[in-house]
Amino acid sequence: MEMKGFLKFVVIMGMVVSGCRGDVTTFRDCYAKCFIFCMIEPNKSLCTCTTECLKECIFPSLPGTQTMGLDPHTENLGYCKLGCATSMCSNISKAHNPDVKSMDSCVGSCSNKCTKSYSSSSP
């Protein structure tokens, strides 16, 4: 009986988070939707969901598809942001609370760190 209640909660939260639309426009929306749906899959761990959702929401399309032909600095900036977010932010989400506000803030700070790093090393 408890599982049915949890699944209802997840479906409702998914609708609220996505705004009843199929499109996802911000990191916060993407991460919340991804994390909630990942955690309801059998045999998915907290660590797996956090890592998969960071990757999916930082790189909305896998590198090598739409990123082909981009400036190497732009692509490297995405990899820097993913590495920073994985190491600095992956412990924020909990199994029943993705804490999207804190994740968004943490990942945003990675953007700033990576931008400073790449802009200061550019010729």
If you had to describe this structure to a student in words, what would you say it looks like?
This protein has helices at 2-18, 27-39, 46-58, 72-89, 100-121. It is an all-alpha fold and 123 residues long. The protein has one domain. The chain is elongated, with a radius of gyration of 16 Å. Residues 1-22 form the signal peptide. Keywords: Signal. InterPro entries: THNL. It comes from Artemisia annua. This is Thionin-like protein 2.
Descriptive keywords:
single chain; Thionin-like protein 2; THNL; mainly alpha; signal; 5 helices; 123 residues
Task: State the oligomer.
Answer: single chain
Structural class: mainly alpha
Low-confidence stretches: 15-22, 62-67
Mean pLDDT: 76
Helix content: 55-70%
Helix-strand topology string = HHHHH
Alpha-carbon distance between the two ends: 62 Å
Which strand-content bin applies to the residues?
under 5%
Largest sheet: none
How many individual β-strands? 0
Which outline best applies? elongated
What is the alpha-carbon Rg in Å?
16 Å
**Number of helical segments?**
5
Q: What is the domain total for the residues?
A: 1
Keywords: Signal
Protein name: Thionin-like protein 2
Signal peptide: 1-22
Organism: Artemisia annua
